[in-house]
Design goal:
- The chain is mainly alpha-helical.
- It has helices at 2-10, 19-32, 43-66, 121-140, 145-163, 171-211, 217-239, 244-268, 277-295, 299-307, 310-335, 341-363, and strands at 91-97, 100-108.
- The chain folds into 2 domains: 2-66, Helix Hairpins; 121-242 and 296-363, no CATH class.
- It is built from 12 helices and 2 strands, in the order H-H-H-E-E-H-H-H-H-H-H-H-H-H.
- It has a two-stranded antiparallel ribbon with strand order 1-2.
- Helix 5 packs across helix 6 (171-211).
- The longest helix is centred in the middle third of the chain and has 41 residues, at 171-211.
């Protein structure tokens, strides 16, 4: 029992915590101490690897312990034939008394076991209708045949990721990268054809990676800044209303000029941080203005005029993809507390697959 108490201590829990509390504590600590979050080949990464192994070992041992039917009962061997009544259940704490060298037992009631979580019908309905909308939009925008194969592969991959959402700290990250890539590709294909679809797909994947991780503020700012530059370049190149290469060049030059002006303004106002407000603001604004200017005079506005209502359809498709994946991930986490991972995968794959097929049928 001392080992079990030590495993609880490693997960920052009190003995007797429920399996759901153990699972949540493991996820939080595993994410915090994952070696990938620390500089490569550094002392911090080495310490994180050791801590990560301890956390995994403690979690595996506690899962095995809590799966046993008598895990809520602790038995101690008395030094004399004084023992707790065999017909009474519960946790017993033994202690010597002043009047007797034997041990007496104090009964502490067993904590109530958590009731199994019900099937999250609300989230599953959200998954179903979101995938109907996705399938309908995919059908009416007439995507290439090879893209349908990628779509069904992504459908299976996201269902697997959602089914393992409660066990792997990477599942949300992978799912949001998938969602961002598909959403960006779908919107880009509808707005500006294949070129815009590819560019926006990469941008969406990068934004999904940001949403699924604890990125530093500088990384977030960089992704949003250059994501906007690539989005402008892909739009004008796909609609052939402007110069895509010029947008990229202008965005880079604008970022350099903007950050230079920002550094000067920070120095004037005695900002002590390495990247002050002026530097960050100048970097982002300069890059976007440079991309807009480099694309050509009014190129972005002409692109939006050319696309017309396609912009709305593409935007709704992107929203539906992200909503469907997020709903699937939440439903997966709730389902794994009621059924095992394989059945969770079957439920999620069936609900989303039927929704996707039904939406395609409606659209065709």
């Amino acid at each position: 029992m001392e080992e079990i108490r030590e495993y609880y201590k490693i997960l920052n829990l009190e003995p007797g915590a429920s399996s759901e509390e153990v699972k949540q504590a493991y996820r939080n600590l595993a994410f915090l101490w994952h070696p990938d979050r620390y500089p490569q080949d550094s002392q911090q990464q080495a310490e994180a690897e050791q801590k990560f192994k301890e956390i995994n070992h403690a979690y595996d041992q506690l899962r095995t312990f809590l799966s046993q039917p008598q895990s809520s009962v602790e038995f101690s061997t008395p030094v004399k034939p004084s023992s707790p009544p065999p017909h009474t259940r519960g946790f017993y704490r033994r202690s010597p008394t002043a009047s007797s060298p034997f041990y007496t037992y104090t009964r502490v009631p067993t904590p109530p076991q958590p009731t199994p979580t019900e099937i999250p019908w609300g989230w599953l309905m959200s998954v179903f209708f979101s995938y109907i909308l996705v399938g309908w939009i995919l059908a009416i925008v007439s995507i290439p045949g090879w893209a349908w194969g990628f779509t069904w592969m992504a459908w299976i991959a996201i269902a697997i990721s959602a089914a393992s959402g409660s066990e792997s700290q990477h599942s949300w990250l992978l799912a949001l990268i998938f969602a961002g890539s598909i959403a960006g590709w779908l919107a880009g294909h509808q707005v500006g054809g294949l070129i815009t679809a590819v560019v926006w797909g990469f941008v969406g994947g990068a934004l999904g990676a940001i949403a699924g991780s604890e990125a530093h503020s500088g990384t977030v700012m960089g992704v949003f800044t250059f994501g906007g530059v690539f989005a402008i370049a892909g739009l004008v190149a796909g609609t052939r209303t402007g110069d895509g290469v010029g947008a990229l060049t202008g965005g880079l030059l604008g970022a350099i000029i903007g950050i230079a002006i920002g550094v000067i303004s920070d120095a004037v106002f005695n900002t002590r941080r390495k990247m002050g407000v002026g530097s960050v603001f100048g970097f982002g604004l300069g890059a976007w203005v440079g991309a807009w200017t480099g694309a050509g005079s009014k190129a972005v506005l002409r692109a939006l005029e050319v696309t017309g209502s396609d912009v709305i359809i593409g935007a709704w498709g992107a929203i539906a993809v992200v909503a469907g994946v997020v709903s699937q991930m939440v439903a997966g986490e709730k389902l794994t507390t009621a059924v095992n991972e394989f059945h969770t995968f079957l439920i999620l794959a069936t609900v989303s697959g039927i929704g996707l097929a039904l939406g395609c049928w409606f659209g065709s």
